[in-house]
Structure formats: C-alpha cells, structure tokens
Amino acid sequence: MNLCVIAVFLGLTQSEEKYATKYDNVDLDGILNNDRLLKGYVKCLMDDGPCTADAKELKANIPDALTNGCSKCSDKQREGTKKVIRHLYSNKQDIWRQLQDKYDPEHAYLTKVPREDKYSTKYDNVNLQEILESDRLRKSYLDCLLVDKAPCTPDAKLLKESIPDALTNSCSKCSDKQKDGTKQVIRFLYQKKPEEWKRLQARFDPQNTYYETYKDELKQL
C-alpha cells in the first residue's frame, strides 16, 4: 500500500474519482523548512489547534487516501507526498510518529518510507575536496548530519536524507560520481579525521550493521 497520509500538504479535496488539483502548486519546501508553518499543519492534523477551511477538509480526506493507496492522487500529488514523508521521516521523527500513531496506529499502511529509484544528481559537482580540507566547511556539514536541528545547505540536507537508504542498498541508487565521491569522503575521514568518522558511524550505523560490507575496503585504505 503506497503512503499518502500527508495529503494535507498537497491541498487535496475529495471527489468521486480524483482529488482536486487546486493546491498542487503549494510550496512544500516553504512549509517543510518553516517550523511555524509546519507546526500549524501538524496541530490541525492532530486535533490540537485550529484549521483553515481547506486544512479541515484535507484532514477529512487522509483516511481515504490511506485506504485507497493514493489511487485518487495526481502524479504531482504522489511525488509531493513522497517528498513530505521522506522529509518527516529523516528530519522530524517526532512529528512522523505522532501522525503515524494517529492515522495508522496498527501500522497497516505506513510500513515503508518511499524511496527514489535513483538519487538526484543535482549536487554531483560539489567540490568535495574543498569541503574536506576546510575545517569550517566540514564542520558545517557534520553539524547538519549529526545534529537534528542544525542548519543544512540544500546539498547537505539531501545527503542527510539519502544516507540511511544508501546504506541499506550499498549505494546501488548512486550515480558513478556519487560512488566515487562517497569513497573520497570515507577515505579522507577514516585516514585523517578518525574521530569525525566515528561520530558519523555512531549516528548512521550504531550497531555496525553495514560495517561488515565495507570493512575490507577500509582496511585497504
């Protein structure tokens, strides 16, 4: 069953066949990156605050969107919903759990987080060497990855969202340039900044679940 619970952010209104596309162009990034706006939507969804007229109607549609697997959603609504879910799951676990407990307490629908077939190549040309060799730049990226509410550049934010999935699939969704860049970063941190490497490992692989897959490569560095 596809995830479509966060339909509220898409401004869906229910019809017999398809949800209306009136709000398909809502600025999802503007909502997700603004704690005040996001909090307002969440309070409405959780029956913990006032709702605008459209939000009230949207909230009523969430159960239907869950049960029909978002079959009434437009393509843009599906993609937007996946984007919101990935963001909440990766960056706002407290909100994710609240919504899951309210709308899917038995975990009948919200069992998987949607993933992309391939990771975006939008930031493939970032100068990794410059970042790695600059204590200031490297620290800002590490703060983003390790501290939940730390500010993130757009590329660091995307990296943070992709790491858990990339670990589980051994970077199979990475472009060749992303795979080479990953090796470059790991090599640098493992050899020159072992404490920073340990912090990342503790955050993203605390049980050494994935370490077994790359330990031999590390030993050869």
Automatic annotation (TrEMBL):
Residues annotated as signal peptide: 1-15
This protein's name: Uncharacterized protein
Xref: InterPro entries: A10/PebIII (IPR005055), OS_D_A10/PebIII_sf (IPR036682)
Classification of source organism: Eukaryota, Metazoa, Ecdysozoa, Arthropoda, Hexapoda
Biological source species: Timema shepardi
Keywords: Signal
Tagged with keyword tRNA processing: no
The keyword Transmembrane appears for this protein: no
Pfam families with a match to the protein in the record: OS-D
